[in-house]
Amino acid sequence: MNEWFKNHFVPEACRHLSGNGFQADAKIVLILDNCTVHLSPEISVKDNDWVLFFPPNCTSIIPPMDMGILRALKCQYESEFFKEMLSFLNGGETLQNFLKCKNLKTAVWSAAKAWGGIPTMMMKNACHNLWNETIFYEDEENVDTDFKGFQISKEKA
Where is the DDE-1 domain (predicted)? Predict the structure, then answer.
């Protein structure tokens, strides 16, 4: 896990941030549940990037938020699957031929397309229940915090 954090997560997160216009020294935080197989806190810091752990016994708070996002992902995936199937069938092919064309690669691409179809607002609202006082804003006036992009709020985004 430590190798993954240093060699994969941090470089990929840096590429994502630079590709979206963030400064090179932007802070990166990976938040994990308090599981013993995850990184040890001493090893989980690299430059401006670190790992935070949920306190013990709070993982049960997360599943209701996951369920909303997973439900949306499944709906998007099914919608894409049926659109593809109908297009295939309207082209004169059989259902058996359509199913023969499906494999792990096409399933992964379909899942990625479905993930891209989940609205950003849904993701923000799902996270709001976890950190109900901290959400992202573009307006950063009067913000007294160490994290660029965070601002205190009492209502959902």
Answer: 1-124
